[in-house]
Amino acid sequence: MNIIQSINQLNFICIAHFSSKAFQSGLHLIGSSQPIVAAPGDDVILPCRVEPEWDAVGKTVEWSRPDLRPTGPQKRVEYVFVYRFRKTDRDMMMDTYIQRTSLSQDGLRRGDVSLTIRNVSLQDQGRFRCFIPRLGIEAELLLVVGEERVQTAGLYFVFRPFCEITLDPNTANRNLFLSEGNRKVIRMMQQQFYLDNPDRFTDYKQVLSRESLTGRCYWEVEWTGRGVGVAVSYQNIRRSEGFGFNDKSWSLYCTKDGNTFFLDDIETPVPGPVSSRIGVYLDHRAGILSFYSVSGTMTLLHRVQTRFTQPLYAGICVYNGSSAELIKPQHWPPDGAKYLLSNCVQGLHQDPARI
Fold this sequence. Notes:
Elements: H1 3-9, E1 15-17, H2 20-25, E2 28-30, E3 36-38, E4 44-46, E5 49-51, E6 61-64, E7 79-84, E8 87-88, H3 95-98, E9 101-102, H4 105-108, E10 115-117, E11 126-132, E12 137-145, E13 149-152, E14 155-159, E15 176-179, E16 184-187, E17 206-213, E18 216-224, E19 227-234, E20 249-255, E21 258-263, E22 266-270, E23 277-283, E24 288-295, E25 297-305, E26 312-318, E27 323-327, E28 346-348
Parallel strand pairs: 3-12
Antiparallel strand pairs: 1-12, 2-5, 4-10, 6-7, 6-11, 7-8, 9-10, 11-12, 13-14, 14-28, 15-16, 16-27, 17-26, 18-23, 18-27, 19-20, 19-26, 20-21, 21-22, 23-24, 24-25
């Protein structure tokens, strides 16, 4: 069964169930309304978080496979991942997932119970359920694993998931206003009322994504005004430093006069078209980071080949009088490929720089 057939036949959406405890507390569990699509060997994140933010440290979190029947004489449910008593409970987990799954300890403090699965295989395809017993809430997501290749202009494209990225208010500089479900950021003259948070940027008008990026993914940023910086960064960047002015972040700064790439405070002029829409392709495992001008066609602006040692986060820096928004891509893969998977984008099976 190929990916397109899988999504057509397993067209599940995120399903959330609530108990009376959840209603009383006003908390609910948010997953993904789209299937999570991956190729064999990818690392994937099954997004799931408690809204509003809720400290899940020390609370039990269970991830299971509802489409798998319980095994053994006692028909006991075997879990993909179990977190309780502030640690992973491997005794309750299926052997195949013990070394391949994890939660983010930093994320738990914000109610982010997203599950990372490394080196996925065809056997991982199916429904996954996240359950928090203390709140009595759960959410189901669909993982589709496989490759559907389309040949265009001599290249083979492999369908990869579009990263549904949102911006983290806890990291936003006080002169930034977030809207559109935390997908749009506007620079303001007056400071916004944000609670004190050690993750908040203090000097530069910038913000990080809530979601970490560890596999292959693609996203686009549309900007207006004087200019923006489109970046990826490690979580442990100093909050007084700007994107690209250290060895923990990589940033393409875009203005109407041109584009410039910064890494470790080294400036690299970037020739190519000026566009109000920038595409970013990341292959974390391969150490590839590519920036594209998106305007009718896609043009590679700059490509980085390195070794990423930590999960990355998308970042946006906003100039005075400017705004930026994370939007759904329109031109990935390049013109000629005939298929799209819902709101998923296509990563290249070959080096993206060959576009």
